[in-house]
């Protein structure tokens, strides 16, 4: 009788455990990469300069020129409102955990980092959000604080306004207006930035179930907050720079904010020392910037790989879901078209120097990372790599709110192995056009001085933020990407050709008639667009991936596919490369809404096509 009772108790216990597993509440985490927040309404602490008044509302703002925005891969001003819109959307969805994988600030300036801290504190206190942040190359430009200058703020009467932390950082002869000097515009280093952002993951909190760094000496089993707090001092979190006797801070950390979920924040800022060092302590000019990412991590921050391997093994042993994030991609973000891009455009074009070597994915996959969220590139993309040892890594590139297409990601953890990723586009943004009156003044000034290559005023007719970012990309392509990236002869050969010309470039009429008929097209379908439209849509696909499909349209995408098929037959190797690049860019891994099965290393597209 006792034996039967014991069996019944065991069965009831097993049923109870199973029931708890199936009813386990799903965990959701939002990822906002590359917010590049510039606090456009902040006041300098050491200057009376307030910016300039809005011609319509009279409200003072300190913004950058439209001209500077349209030559940059990011928007400087309107993303302030987009960031608030994204946070409000996250609050509405009931998500409590928010990750910022680097470049949370414009350039690590005190005024902007302080502004971000105030916003995050407000959302933490009002809505109960918890933020987990890591550093990007724009947050800690150099490991130590340095003077800085911006020459492209918008001043009175539409003129450019220089704002600098030093009188020695700019050419006084090129100033249209009296320069503003303030320490609030310098670039902070690790010490200042991390301490200002200390409440957002960089240091332990009492509410954390666990927290450690690559330099912690305690274990999960004997964890206590007081010990973690002692070991969290930034001076205790340093590593020796290869070929030097210098130590730099490493802001990496592991945190368990929710039972069973480990967030691994990797500080992948790797600063390369100059061949000739100054010999001065804490000299920011002794190092290059950190924008290369993981290729330099493998060389200069090898301690991170050892730590990641330890953390991943412990997560597996303890049944934790390990989610890694950092500022930089771990996998090629060009839909595996980087070799062709390099051949056609050159190794130093198309931001190819930022593409991680294949060894990066291999090393981190074998270290135990299965899913990683990155930023840096301002693009929407998913990369998958399986190492020679059979370990698979999924790299999720989170778009920027300061570029096309403005969006953030939501990760839903259904179980330890069943994950869902959804991309939320921020198309409608309150007050997105409130700064347009400033730009009207700027445009009038540029016309008055007969400035070269003035931006197109139609951007000020944008009906929503998404359309505004579309215009931003279009002008960026026209004003910067075409002149800087495209070989002049290749550009000239396709930019003004119609779709019909491109289609017929390497085919006879009979062949084309057959192809068109089998795809339900007529030749006139290809006469409504030209080479520039194809180039622009290439950049839209490169930036937004699947998010651009509905904007370009199925019909046009099919037309591009047919043209790529024809151009691949060309005798011109540049046209063949262009066709291969474009086709690959249209056919990447799922990147909008998808599921990841970590047990079987599968990715399934959930987007409605």
Task: Note down, in words, how this protein is organized.
This protein has 609 residues and is α/β, with parallel strands linked by helices. Strand 6 and strand 7 form a beta hairpin. The protein is globular.
What characteristics describe this protein?
globular; 21 strands; 20 helices; alpha/beta; 609 residues; seven-stranded mixed beta sheet
SSE order and pairing:
Blueprint: H1 2-22, E1 27-31, E2 52-53, E3 60-61, H2 66-69, H3 79-92, E4 97-101, H4 110-127, E5 130-134, E6 149-154, E7 160-164, E8 180-181, H5 190-196, H6 198-202, E9 210-212, H7 225-231, E10 238-240, E11 247-249, E12 253-258, E13 261-266, H8 294-300, H9 302-318, E14 321-326, H10 338-345, H11 358-367, E15 371-374, E16 381-386, E17 392-397, E18 407-413, E19 418-425, H12 436-448, H13 465-485, H14 488-494, H15 499-504, H16 509-518, H17 531-544, H18 549-552, H19 554-567, H20 573-586, E20 593-597, E21 602-605
Parallel strand pairs: 1-4, 4-5, 7-8, 13-14, 14-15, 15-17
Antiparallel strand pairs: 1-18, 2-3, 6-7, 9-12, 10-11, 12-13, 16-17, 18-19, 19-20, 20-21
Helix pairs in contact: 9-11, 10-20, 19-20
Brief overview, please?
The protein is α/β, with parallel strands linked by helices and 609 residues long. Helix content is 36%, strand content 16%. A seven-stranded mixed β-sheet has the order 5-4-1-18-19-20-21. Strands 9-12-13-14-15-17-16 form a seven-stranded mixed β-sheet. Strands 6-7-8 form a three-stranded mixed β-sheet.
């Amino acid at each position: 009788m006792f034996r039967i009772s014991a069996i019944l108790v065991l069965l009831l216990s097993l049923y109870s455990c199973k029931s708890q597993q199936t009813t386990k509440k799903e965990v959701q985490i939002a990822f906002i990469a590359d917010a590049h927040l510039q606090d456009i309404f902040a006041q300098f602490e050491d200057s009376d300069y307030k910016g300039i008044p809005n011609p319509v509302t009279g409200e003072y703002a300190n913004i950058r020129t439209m001209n500077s925005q349209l030559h940059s891969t990011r928007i400087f001003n309107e993303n302030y409102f987009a960031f608030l819109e994204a946070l409000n959307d996250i609050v509405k969805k009931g998500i409590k955990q928010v990750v910022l994988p680097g470049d949370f600030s414009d350039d690590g300036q005190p005024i902007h980092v302080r502004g971000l801290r105030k916003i995050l504190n407000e959302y933490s206190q009002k809505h109960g959000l918890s933020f987990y942040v890591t550093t990007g190359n724009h947050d800690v430009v150099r490991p130590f604080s340095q003077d800085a200058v911006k020459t492209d703020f918008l001043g009175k009467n539409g003129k450019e306004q220089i704002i600098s932390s030093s009188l020695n950082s700019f050419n006084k002869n090129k100033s249209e207006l009296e320069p503003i000097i303030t320490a609030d515009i310098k670039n902070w280093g690790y010490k200042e930035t991390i301490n200002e952002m200390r409440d957002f993951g960089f240091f332990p909190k009492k509410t954390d179930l666990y927290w450690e760094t690559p330099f912690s000496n305690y274990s999960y089993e004997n964890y206590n907050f007081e010990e973690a707090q002692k070991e969290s001092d930034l001076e205790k979190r340093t590593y020796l720079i290869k070929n030097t006797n210098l130590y730099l801070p490493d802001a990496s950390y592991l945190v368990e904010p929710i039972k069973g979920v480990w967030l691994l924040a990797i500080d992948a800022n790797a600063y390369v020392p100059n061949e000739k060092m100054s010999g001065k302590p804490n000299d920011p000019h002794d190092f290059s910037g950190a924008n290369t990412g993981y290729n330099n991590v493998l060389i200069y921050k090898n301690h991170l790989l050892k730590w990641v391997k330890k953390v991943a093994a412990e997560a597996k042993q303890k049944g934790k879901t390990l989610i890694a994030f950092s500022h930089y991609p771990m996998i090629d973000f060009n839909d595996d078209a980087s070799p062709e891009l390099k051949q056609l455009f050159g190794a130093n074009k198309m931001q190819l120097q930022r593409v991680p070597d294949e060894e990066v994915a291999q090393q981190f996959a074998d270290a135990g990372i299965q899913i990683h969220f990155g930023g840096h590139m301002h693009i929407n993309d998913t990369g998958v790599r399986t190492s020679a040892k059979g370990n698979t890594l999924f790299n999720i590139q989170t778009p920027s709110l300061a570029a096309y297409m403005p969006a953030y990601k939501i990760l839903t953890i259904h179980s330890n192995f069943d994950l869902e990723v959804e991309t939320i586009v921020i198309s409608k943004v309150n007050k997105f056009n409130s700064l347009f009156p400033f730009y009207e003044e700027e445009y009038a000034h540029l016309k008055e001085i007969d400035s070269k290559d003035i931006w197109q005023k139609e951007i000020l007719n944008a009906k929503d933020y998404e359309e505004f970012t579309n215009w931003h990309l279009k002008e960026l392509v026209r004003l910067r990407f075409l002149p800087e990236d495209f070989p002049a002869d290749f550009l000239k050969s396709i930019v003004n050709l119609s779709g019909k010309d491109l289609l017929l470039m390497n085919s006879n009429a009979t062949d084309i008639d057959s192809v068109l008929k089998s795809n339900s097209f007529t030749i006139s379908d290809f006469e409504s667009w030209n080479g520039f439209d194809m180039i622009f849509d290439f950049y839209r696909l490169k930036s937004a991936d699947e998010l651009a499909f509905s904007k370009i349209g199925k019909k046009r995408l099919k037309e591009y596919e047919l043209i790529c098929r024809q151009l691949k037959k060309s005798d011109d190797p540049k046209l063949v490369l262009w066709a291969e690049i474009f086709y690959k860019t249209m056919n990447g891994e799922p990147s909008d809404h998808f599921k990841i099965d970590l047990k079987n290393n599968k990715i399934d597209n959930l987007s409605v096509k």
